[in-house]
């Protein structure tokens, strides 16, 4: 996995991690990390998508807080003290700007064929949703949808395909909030939503206690098909 520096919109730069596909050319894919981020996890996700044919880049959206992903321990369960601090101090608008910078960077890479998608997990799912509503990314995928409910007024701004995976028993997206999200996104035909019975938050994270193999396999298969149709065909 390559460590790169992406020029930010404010004239500085931030770290990101890239994996190239076989042949070193293909559509771009921005992987937006979750709160519980370690380089080991990012590498595994990046390599999985690169094996599917994508030029994969995962920016460190916590760089403004001094978070060094290279030195983050790969815990099976999250460091809640660190996680709480990162979440409380995270600037969503600054995160969007960094993702817009990443999108421009990926599209200008010689290895990138032009189209670029985004896939986000946990906190990253909110950011992938905002990329779908605020940028010209070619498609986006959201795992868990936490925080999306705060931006439902942007549902009609989404024109490109968006895939949303929700866990039925996600405690971070209570039933009432979940129903509000489902009702809102159902009004936009560009958005496809899947609800996974018995699945909790983090159901695709293999190292976590809430890993739900059946739901994870199905969600990842749907994501692979969705990205292939949007970016490779």
Walk me through this protein's architecture:
The protein has a single domain (2-232), classed as Alpha/Beta hydrolase fold, catalytic domain (Rossmann fold, 3-Layer(aba) Sandwich), CATH 3.40.50.1820. With 233 residues, it is of the alpha/beta class. The chain contains six helices and eight strands; from the N terminus they run βββαβααβαββαβα. It has helices at residues 39-50, 80-88, 92-108, 123-134, 175-185, 213-232; strands at 2-7, 13-19, 26-32, 55-59, 112-121, 139-143, 162-167, 191-196. It has an eight-stranded mixed beta sheet with strand order 1-2-4-3-5-6-7-8, with helices on both faces. Helix content is 35%, strand content 22%. The longest helix has 20 residues, at 213-232.
């Amino acid at each position: 996995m390559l460590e790169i520096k992406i020029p930010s919109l404010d004239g500085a730069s931030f770290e990101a991690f890239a994996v190239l596909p076989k042949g070193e050319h293909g559509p771009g894919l921005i992987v937006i990390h979750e709160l519980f981020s370690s380089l080991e996890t990012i590498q595994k996700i990046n390599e999985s998508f690169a094996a599917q044919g994508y030029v994969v880049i995962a920016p460190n959206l916590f760089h403004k807080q001094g978070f060094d992903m290279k030195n983050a321990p790969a815990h099976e369960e999250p460091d809640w003290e660190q996680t709480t601090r990162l979440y409380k101090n995270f600037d969503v608008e600054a995160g969007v700007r960094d993702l817009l910078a990443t999108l421009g960077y990926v599209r200008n890479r010689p290895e990138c064929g032009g189209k670029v998608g985004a896939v986000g997990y946990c906190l990253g799912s909110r950011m992938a949703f905002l990329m779908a509503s605020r940028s010209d990314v070619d498609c986006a995928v959201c795992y868990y949808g936490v925080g999306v409910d705060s931006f439902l007024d942007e549902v009609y701004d989404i024109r490109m395909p968006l895939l949303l995976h929700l866990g039925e028993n996600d405690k971070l997206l209570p039933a009432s909030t979940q129903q509000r999200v489902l009702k809102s996104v159902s009004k936009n035909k560009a958005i496809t939503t899947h609800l996974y019975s018995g699945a909790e938050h983090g159901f695709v994270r293999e190292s976590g206690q809430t890993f739900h193999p059946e739901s994870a396999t199905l969600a990842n298969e749907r994501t692979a098909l969705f990205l292939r149709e949007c970016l490779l065909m």
